[in-house]
Design goal:
- The structure holds two protein chains of two kinds.
- Chain A is built from one helix and 13 strands.
- By secondary structure, chain A is mainly beta.
- Chain B is 13% helix and 50% strand.
- In chain B, strands 1, 3, 4, 6, 8, 9 and 10 form a seven-stranded antiparallel β-sheet that branches.
- Chain B is elongated.
- The two termini of chain B are 41 Å apart.
- Classes of the chains: A mainly beta, B mainly beta.
- The interface between A and B is large, with 36 and 65 residues.
- Strand 1 of chain A pairs parallel with strand 2 of chain B, so a sheet runs across the interface.
Chain lengths: 171, 161
């Protein structure tokens, strides 16, 4: 009788001992990455406000739209305005964000007129809102930039130049 | 009298095993991935670099590799781990992750390694008997790695200590 009990116990031990080895569970997960070509921007046309006739006593503005149209309070001379144009290239069909200058650019004559003019109120097409840029199926888009020129009272005549930066980034 | 002694000894040993077996009977139940591990959009450089997504889903880069926006999202992999019976004390679980895994696109491949994980709070998801387990890793991007969507998978095992 005692031997029978011993045998039973040893079987129970064996069963419990093997149990813990299965206290595990597995699963798998997918992992992914999308490699895309770097986004780049290069200038194709400089911005040009065209010819402007300064007012003798008042500050005037020239507003250059992204379609190169000119408006504002200044008297415009002959010739056309030109919006700045940039070639943006990168990943096909990717969206991107344009960053325009945060402050005014100063333009002046060489040598200095002593009265540099400010260019500000930057606008672009596509706009500088997040993700507004969209590269086409070949990864290209033309970016146009306009701005507002402030012409001082009795602004000295001459050819004024300056520069500004525009950047693009995937969003 | 001598015959009864080994019997009680065996009985004691049996109880010991029975007790430890009860403690170990909490079986982890790992659910399917809630989110996949995604490194998002990446721009390869002219030199090698890497992209790390931490267990909390934060992305950083090193070397010549650049992160490029969130168009396809960036996320750590996440899983719900439940136990039966209830015991979501994360200290009693071991997480086993691979040393490395491969992401591929056609014949082009990249390696991910440096797997890292983090437990969310108990009951953070579903009932009190589950915990969220998040997993991050580091992606190694080759110099001028071809642009494409790369995909792969990795296995995860949760073991009761």
């Amino acid at each position: 009788m005692k031997k029978l009990i011993l045998t039973t116990l040893s079987i129970v031990i064996a069963l419990f001992a093997t149990g813990p080895a299965y206290a595990a569970d597995s699963t798998s997960a997918s992992a992914s990455a999308t490699l895309i070509s770097a986004i780049s921007i290069s200038k194709t046309l400089d911005m040009n406000f065209g010819k402007v006739v300064p007012n003798a006593s008042a500050t005037k503005t020239v507003i250059l739209a992204t379609n190169s149209g000119r408006s504002g309070t200044a008297t415009l001379g002959n010739g056309l305005g030109v919006a700045a144009s940039f070639a943006v290239s990168g990943d096909p069909n990717a969206t991107y964000t344009v960053t325009l200058p945060a402050s005014a650019a100063s333009i002046d004559t060489t040598p200095t007129s002593g009265a540099p003019m400010d260019v500000d109120t930057w606008v672009s097409n596509p706009a500088d809102t997040a993700g507004a840029g969209l590269l086409d199926g070949s990864g290209a888009q033309t970016l146009l930039v306009g701005a507002t020129l402030h012409v001082g009272a009795a602004q000295p005549t001459g050819s004024y130049t300056g520069s500004f930066n525009v950047s693009v980034a995937y969003n | 009298m001598p015959a009864s002694r080994p019997a009680s000894l065996v009985a004691a040993v049996a109880l010991l095993f029975a007790a430890s077996a009860r403690a170990n009977a909490q079986t982890p139940i790992v659910g399917p991935a809630v989110t996949a591990l995604s490194f998002g959009l990446v721009v390869a450089g002219n030199l090698p670099g890497s992209v790390r997504v931490t267990a909390s889903g934060l992305r950083s880069t090193s070397g010549a590799t650049h992160a490029a926006g969130n168009r396809f999202g960036v996320s750590a992999a996440s899983f719900t781990v439940a136990s039966s019976p209830d015991n979501t004390e994360s200290s009693v679980w071991s997480v086993m992750l691979p040393v490395s895994a491969t992401l591929s696109s056609g014949k082009n491949e990249m390696t991910i390694d440096g797997f890292e994980y983090s437990w969310g709070p108990a009951g953070g998801l579903g009932g009190k008997s589950s915990r969220l387990l998040t997993v991050g890793a580091t992606l190694h991007v080759g110099a001028r790695q071809p642009s494409a969507q790369y995909a792969g998978s990795f296995a995860l095992t949760v073991v009761h200590n």
